[in-house]
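Deliverable D5.2: sample structural annotation.
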Amino acid sequence: MDNNIQQGNERMILVRAFNENDGKMQCGDVEESYGWEDFHIVDLSLNKIYRNCLPSLPRACGRGNMVALGKSIFIFGGLDSFSKHSPLFKFVKSSPESHFHMGASHLHFDPLDLKDGLMVRAAWSPAPLMNTPHSYTPTCLNGDVYSFGNIHCSPEVLYVDNANVEVLGPWKLLYCPPELVKCTPCLSAIPDPTKNRILVHFYGGQLPSPSLYAFYPPDRQNQDGETGIWQCLNSNFPGWDKVVDAVLLDGVILLHGRKFPDLLSAYEVDTGRWLDVQWSTRVIEEDLSIEDCYFGFDSLFCLDDTNKILCLAVYSPIEMRSDGEDDDDDDNSPSKTSLFFFKFRVERRHSTISLTPLYTRSFEIESTTEVLNFLLL
């Protein structure tokens, strides 16, 4: 492995994986188990993976979700009522030296600080808890972090000083219109920096049908108590129950779902119309076609806005099979997980989105039972 992480022309992907080996901690008279999270970085343009290059993170509550902001990586969410009452959480909370994930974690990240495949002098530290600490919908816009709740809409913002890598907490609650109070946000919110807004899909509550909304954040320097403006963009936007992930590219939301025959659907936000999606060829590689991707993917990224390069990512545990010899050794061998990435180019031709397969990449990581998140850095 190179001494320093080299970076190609595209953005890198952070893989957050759940280690198969539990940690043990004595909590008073009880021994409690906890999970470890490992972090790996994939650079598709260089066809490289940097395994375990960031510090592992023990956790005392649920998984939460990751966001990247400048030179900061955050993990927010996962703190539910069950976690709060667990012996492990109570014990860890009373320890001033704890570095467990307890609903909000922060790591200062700079690729130039990676030496010999490891982050130098890096450590996870606590971050301010959200007012809805079980939320899974964080996103970033204009250098700040936003969240829109979990079961019910609960918008809030965490201001960040990116120049000094300093969190300007606590979280500040933002305005929620009456019709969205009991509505549920879907997936992660989608930032639209060209129009200074965040796109959020809601269902349930008082809405007669699933709807797409835009949230326009207030000016950070505003002193008049303004807490944001909401606009309904489409009051009849069903089908997001099939959506796994989505990105915005040139005003078009590209949605990936496991039941989509072309893997993607395309919705133009300003006109409110659905666009046709076509593959230039349905053959991805010699032994792989679009039809073979029936398993679906876990995440969708835009690796390169300028050249319109997107990527689908999925993980799959590798079944460890015995060959009939050394069965005991096979039973004790570490679990492996395969990471699979499919890169393609997007072109707009009038009312048609044309997709061109580029190539696939695959990597293996050991001692892993599950990939929790993929994150674009």
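Annotation notes: DSSP finds three helices and 33 strands in the chain. The chain has a mean pLDDT of 87.
The annotation will be released with the project's public dataset once the embargo ends.
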